[in-house]
Design a protein that fits this description.
heterodimer, A: 371 residues, mainly beta, Methylamine Dehydrogenase, Chain H, four-stranded antiparallel beta sheet, 30 strands, 0% helix, 39% strand, globular, B: 107 residues, alpha+beta, Ubiquitin-like (UB roll), six-stranded mixed beta sheet, 6 strands
Chain lengths: 371, 107
């Protein structure tokens, strides 16, 4: 029987929300890893019973949890993330050199083909890989070793590697994004990387069009068109049609082009979703109205989606990893808020309902489509 | 008791809530620790028995105490002492526990 399993990471634990293919009635799990911050949890595309979780704490550090039975049981696996060689320095907020220090895992990206392989994007920005289902981790040090590495600076939330996208047609190609260094691409399985930020304009930078330094919030791709990328930047919604070689702005008629999330419809590569947020200083929806904006034209022309979403007195935020889509026949769209709501649409965004309203602040949302 | 020529002492350790959850243990546990009973030897024994605690109390590589944790025993703070300094006899004899505490912070 088809269905959807929504994996929700929050400030105080993880939750699994389950439904059949109708996505009308949902079961909400008991909290998992209560009291820990769950930055991200994601299932393996190659084995949906395998789920990886980033569990972290300012007191007790990083844990990675793994389930091999769809979340019924969990076991902590390897949590040793050691930068390769002498870590060196990046730039601190004030421009002075600062030693690279591991803080936490922001994002886990299981391999498309191998359930034993998983990538981890961490703060301070680096990419790690495990080939033994999370037991041990090695840094793909070519990224941090890029010539520009010593010049990378943190964004307000820390210098995090938050986006990892694998090209399903080219096993050697992968995209990552870092706040606030920008987007990078490898074509050789992670050995070497190139910044792909041409066309980005960030007016807070001394050189607004510099090769690195852009605060990329999230990047999304449709798996049938891996050369087309969509980006929600600190300000500006951007599009690349050449694997990141160049970008153009597609913010169009959005009420504000600041925001964190961006995603692509599972069956329509030109249909995008963003949640505009008023500004980088305020982090609230414009006019107290929580609206998802959808473009069916690959950007520039956007329509507000409001049915079922609060249209007054709403001042929550939607963080960068807190939106996902399922691939059921009628594409489901999901997002979570800092107010603890997880909203779902089973009809590509036309109508929304809260699956659950009162979780801790939501940090991440992923969905597994079950067949 | 002895192992590989060293004398083992049964030491009581109290863990903070989050680490109890992680290791799936009660508030207080007993572990066998090589003499001399020091913070380093207690943590070695603790991590050996509960590998998931590696990196949660002290750094994987430097072995330094994580900043927001402290070590108390017999109403004394041993956090800033050398990890190789002997803990009080009452801890080595199992009469008093070693307390591993997380800083109370936040709202």
């Amino acid at each position: 029987m088809s269905g959807a399993r929504v994996l929700v990471g929050t400030k105080k634990g993880a939750f699994i929300l389950s439904s059949d293919g109708k996505r009308k009635d949902w079961q909400v799990s008991e909290p998992l890893f209560t009291g820990w911050e769950i930055y991200h949890m994601k299932g393996s595309p190659a084995d949906p019973n395998r789920i990886y979780v980033s569990q972290t704490s300012g007191w007790f550090g990083q844990q990675i949890q793994r389930s091999d039975d769809a979340g019924a049981t969990w076991a902590p696996v390897g949590n040793k993330f050691t930068y390769e060689g002498v870590p060196g320095t990046h730039q601190w907020y004030d421009g002075t050199p600062h030693p690279w220090e591991f803080k936490r895992v922001w994002h886990l990206e299981p391999s498309l083909a191998d359930p034993e392989t998983v990538y981890a994007g961490v703060e301070d920005a680096a990419l790690f890989k495990s080939s033994d289902a999370g037991a041990t981790w090695e840094e793909l040090a070519g990224l941090r070793g890029h010539d520009t590495g010593p010049h990378w600076q943190p964004g307000a939330g820390g210098m995090c590697l938050h986006t990892i996208i694998q090209d399903p047609t080219n096993p050697g190609r992968m995209y990552i994004a870092i706040s606030a260094a920008g987007a990078f691409r490898t074509d050789d399985g992670g050995k070497s990387w190139k910044p792909i930020n041409k066309g980005l304009v960030s007016n807070f930078m001394p050189d607004p069009t510099a090769e690195v330094g852009h605060c990329v919030h999230h990047v999304a791709m449709h798996r049938e068109r891996p050369d087309v990328l969509f980006m929600q930047k600190h300000w500006d919604v951007m599009r690349s049609d050449n694997a990141g070689e160049s970008w153009r702005e597609v913010s169009g008629n959005l009420p504000t082009d600041f925001g964190f999330v961006i995603d692509v419809h599972a069956h329509e590569p030109e249909t995008l979703y963003v949640v505009p947020i008023k500004s980088d200083s305020e982090h609230i929806p414009p006019e107290g109205k929580l609206r998802v904006y959808r473009s069916r034209t690959g950007g520039n022309e956007w329509e507000p989606l409001t049915k079922g979403l609060p249209q007054k007195d709403c001042y929550v935020n939607v963080l960068r990893d807190a939106m996902a889509v399922d691939s059921l026949d009628s594409c489901g769209v999901y997002f979570g808020t800092t107010g603890g709501q997880v909203y779902a649409s089973a009809d590509a965004g036309d109508n929304w309902t809260p699956i659950v309203r009162d979780l801790p602040a939501v940090l991440s949302v992923e969905v597994q489509t079950l067949s | 008791m002895s192992v590989q020529g060293g004398v083992l002492r049964t030491v009581r350790v109290k863990l903070p809530y989050h680490l109890q959850m992680l290791a799936r243990v009660e508030t207080e546990i007993e572990i066998d620790v090589c003499e001399p009973v020091t913070v380093r030897h207690v943590l070695d024994a603790l991590e050996n028995r509960y590998p998931m605690l590696r990196g949660t109390i002290r750094d994987h590589v430097t072995q330094e105490r994580r900043p927001f944790l402290r070590f108390f025993a017999c109403e004394e703070d041993f956090s800033l002492d050398s990890p190789d300094a002997p803990l009080p006899d009452a801890v080595a004899r199992g009469e008093e526990p070693l307390l591993i505490l997380g800083a109370i912070a936040g709202g």
